[in-house]
Amino acid sequence: MVSRKQAVIIAEIGVNHNGSLELAKRLVDEAASAGADYAKFQTFQAVKLAATDAPVADYQKLRFEGSNQVDLLASLELTHREFEEIVAHCESVGIGFLTTAHDLDSAAFVFDLDSDFVKVPSGDITNFPFLQLVGRQGKPVLLSTGASNEDEVFEAISVLEAEGLSRHQITVMQCTTEYPAPIHDANLLAMVRMSKKWGVGMGFSDHTEGHVAAVASIALGATVLEKHITLDRSMVGPDHAASLEPTEFASMVLAVRGVSVALGSDQKRITTSESRNREIIRKSIVATQHISAGEPFSSDNLGVMRPGTGLSPMRWHDVIGSPARREYKPGEMVDEP
What we know:
By secondary structure, the chain is α/β, with parallel strands linked by helices.
């Protein structure tokens, strides 16, 4: 029997703290209150992540007046000391801490934090040195696959494997690199295909609006769900528009938990809640008119009625044509053969 486990829910704070430690801690509190398993951030040094002339993406232009990524990223940095405070704060409110390293120097710091998962962001799925370093950590990996094709995903898996990871330690996260992403681009069935084809875990990093796609991913079998959280979608910053506000995030968590429970197991069985109704709704073979002893049973003198405490109608052909061993009154259950 295959039973479902509760999915891991990651509240992706990312850079929605806007460079503020205080705001970061408030978001951790909201993530914990909403029922998330982990609060996740992004750790980077702007000057080591983007070249000086790297342009901002179209979605970033909507919330940022500058023209290059370095300036944008610099405004969203947190120091290592601040991250250490956030780790302690997560522990104090009972939520796991995760962060994604976006450059090799930051990776050394992140790996020393000894979190439960290592996250490979979509932008590093073709970053061979980074993938090698991740694979050597021996930790479960969440591999985001935004803006990539199947061959690129498999190449990344192969690099991780070559460094010692087994496929059961890798969860491939279906992801669409747009903020917010159109729901018609969520492409959740790709997640199912990759998991079945390669024997890796199935996850979803959701950038769509609302939580329809998130809930659908759980119904399809995702065991890890990542969704952005913000205090206010109208705040200045690149990812707020693709995030859920705290009450919305809490509603998503309830929906996801409910779906996980509703999926049950792969065995068809009589549940405890319905067992008491089984005999009430089923039917038995009954006499529809007076039947004398020795009179043959027929479709003229027999019928099927509730409750199901007598002879099952599945025995109909065993009864038809045989002589009654005793007298039956109309409505009386047949107890033979």
